[in-house]
Design goal:
The protein is mostly beta strands and 376 residues long. It is built from five helices and 25 strands. The chain has two domains: 15-50, no CATH class; 58-370, 6 Propeller (Neuraminidase), CATH 2.120.10.
């Protein structure tokens, strides 16, 4: 056996291994720091092929948000992806500012892109922007806003045949349903009408999940709405029958659904075992540690539950409406971590898979900026 190298000698790793086995697995912020090591690393880690491979290796994490009022009458939105493997440390990825009379929220996410909604408290409807928090790119969306027009974002998706990113929107005009439209980012096209599905049974906010090339969102206790992003047409699927509210999740090779009872004592996690046959299977029923949570939350507040991972170690995140506590619960109903934040937390019911890919549509949008407001 060869003797180990002396302690004062470092072992040199070939650039090929360092780049494609180590750097490609780093978080975006760490990768950006490593680019300063040498010009060769900077060039290699800036190519599109590397950035796509790097994006593919990033974890998909649930997004937590928090709001903070500032001394200058502005409001800050903190965006924090939660990774249960980091010992419960909450580290905001980005902070965005808006005037105090503006309600700033996240509306959709896809491939590291976030769609933001800005609602003026004194006017009708929202305006929307898109950003990449990893690259700090930002641009307003040029929709035909007006005093009698209101949009709801149903999702953002890559249109595989064209390579474009597109938005699916629902439009109200004079408080009447005007149907659903598609908007292609950076193409210079106007809104394109794609149909008027029966959406009146939608429950809660229509947060969609992109799975098998289609957007899915829960509509009622017996239905899931589906939008095929290739043909850009609507379908409907069955869902499990249960009382109360439900959220959809992508759990790898299956579509998942999380529901809770009306008393907030248990959570049921379903999986779409047979997608074509629309057959759901109850995977887990988790009894929540209500008494332990009540020790920290003595008020009669609304709770919110998010499935935090699906890698053999399913984690539930319980947040309390208007509170600054996050409760991490394992699949057996055990409270494994209690995390306190300096600001009030809430779940965006969206997921983030960070990317450093520079999308070509950003510079084509009027108002495009990097490292500028609303980023702080």
């Amino acid at each position: 056996m060869a003797d180990p190298p002396p302690p004062d000698r470092c072992i040199l790793i070939p650039d090929e291994i360092a780049i494609w086995e180590i750097l490609v697995r780093l978080p975006p912020k760490s990768l950006i720091r490593c680019r300063a090591v040498c010009p060769a690393w900077r060039r290699a880690t800036s190519t599109r092929d590397f950035l796509l491979a790097h994006h593919a290796r990033q974890p998909t994490l649930p997004i937590l948000c928090s709001l903070e009022d500032n001394d200058d009458d502005d409001t800050s939105l903190y965006i924090t992806p939660f990774d249960h493997r980091t010992s419960g440390k909450l580290q905001p990825l980005a902070r965005l500012d808006a005037a105090s009379d503006i309600c700033l929220r996240l509306s959709a996410s896809c491939d590291g892109l976030l769609v933001l909604s800005f609602r003026n408290m004194s006017s009708f409807g929202c305006q929307f922007s898109i950003c990449n928090p990893a690259t700090r790119q930002y641009a307003p969306l040029p929709l035909d806003y007006g005093p009698t027009v209101e949009y709801t974002i149903f999702g953002i998706y890559p249109h595989i045949p064209t390579g474009e990113y597109r938005l699916l929107l629902h439009r109200l005009h004079m408080l009447r349903c005007d149907g659903c439209y598609v908007f292609s980012l950076g193409s210079g096209q106007q809104l394109r009408y794609v149909g008027r599905p029966d959406l009146w049974k939608l429950t809660g906010s229509p947060r969609s999940v992109l799975f098998r090339g289609s957007l899915h969102w829960h509509s009622s206790g017996i239905m899931v709405m589906v939008f095929d992003t290739t043909s850009e047409s609507f379908l409907r699927m069955r869902s499990p029958v249960f009382p109360g509210y439900a959220d959809l999740y992508d759990i790898g090779d299956m579509l998942g659904l999380c529901s809770h009872d009306n008393e907030w004592t248990s959570v049921s996690i379903w999986a779409l075992q047979d997608y074509e046959g629309e057959v759901w299977t109850l995977k887990y029923r988790v009894k929540l540690p209500v008494a332990e949570i009540w020790v920290h939350d003595k008020l009669d507040s609304d709770w919110d539950v998010v499935v935090g991972s699906w890698d053999g170690d399913v984690v539930l995140l319980v947040t309390v409406d208007g509170g600054n506590m996050l409760f991490q619960v394992d699949i057996n109903g055990k409270l494994v971590a209690t995390i306190c934040c300096c600001r009030d937390l809430y779940s965006a019911h969206l997921w983030l898979k960070q990317t450093l890919v520079l999308h070509t549509f950003f510079p084509t949008l009027e108002g495009y900026a990097v490292n500028a407001l609303p980023f702080i």
